[in-house]
Design a protein that fits this description.
Blueprint (H helix, E strand, L loop, with lengths): L2 H24 L5 H19 L7 H24 L4 H7 L3 H12 L6 H22 L4 H24 L4 H8 L4 H11 L1 H10 L4 H31 L2 H4 L5 H13 L6 H18 L10 H4 L4
Helix pairs in contact: 1-4, 1-11, 1-13, 2-3, 2-8, 2-9, 3-7, 4-13, 5-7, 5-14, 6-7, 6-14
Amino acid sequence: MPTRDRLLAMFVAVLWGLNFLAIHATLGQFPPVFAGALRFAVIAVPTILFVPWPKVKVRHLLGYGLGFGTGQFAFLFIAMDTGMPTGLASLVLQASAPFTVLLGAVFLRERVTARQLAGILLAVAGMTAIAWQQSGHAALLPMVLTVLAALSWAFGNLSTRRAEPDNPLHFTLWMSVVPPLPMFALSLIMEGPAAQWHALTTLGTPTGLTALGGLAYVVLFGTIVGSGIWTTLMRRNPAGVVSPFSLLVPVVGLTASFLLLGERPSGLEIAAAVVVIGGVLLGSLKSARKPDPELLPEEVPV
């Protein structure tokens, strides 16, 4: 992998790590499910107008959109809105990788190696330690919701594997067309039109302007720039060489949350974070000698 590509991969990891701070800012103004709906609606409109259809079956696009888009971000945004620390959210969401391995074995009959199983057990042990720590601070529910977000992402990955899109970036952008309507409906039921209206009519406040900046970052840098560069890297390098750089995302997220939000993880949480990252790396990556082209689409977070 050329030095230029390594630097680009690190740059994308920084963009995605800071994405969680942008989400934190967005949730300061918008109700969580409504924020998720807006996040995808902003991408969906130009996608329909300007991005070519990815040439996949509609059911696979719907599966990816409902799993990766609707389920993941509804659970994640609610978790962060109800107390999940921003840095830990960036870490726990990495559980999507071992979840994908397990779901692939169950539903697609993919073989799970001993190394993958060991990595999954390590990641589960680390997340269990974090959950135990969070339960002591009456914050277990946000942790559970974040795990459900990771599981939803993994279900979306199954649809990606079955879709086998020729252009993963086009597929990812068209996925954004699926979540807005169900998320707007969920927001109406769970949060109510009054909360939505209040969020929109107070955008001129400092909190509202900060939230708009966060939403713009998520769309422009977290999605378009980050995913665009990542897709390019995955096309010209083996997946097993590029994908480990995604493990820098929670490192950036935890560090930025410490520096900018004043979040102070405990010693146990730091140790558990190392275990989770190690487990994800061990359990989700295949040998670089035999790169799996099926990994390409699923390694493009939005």
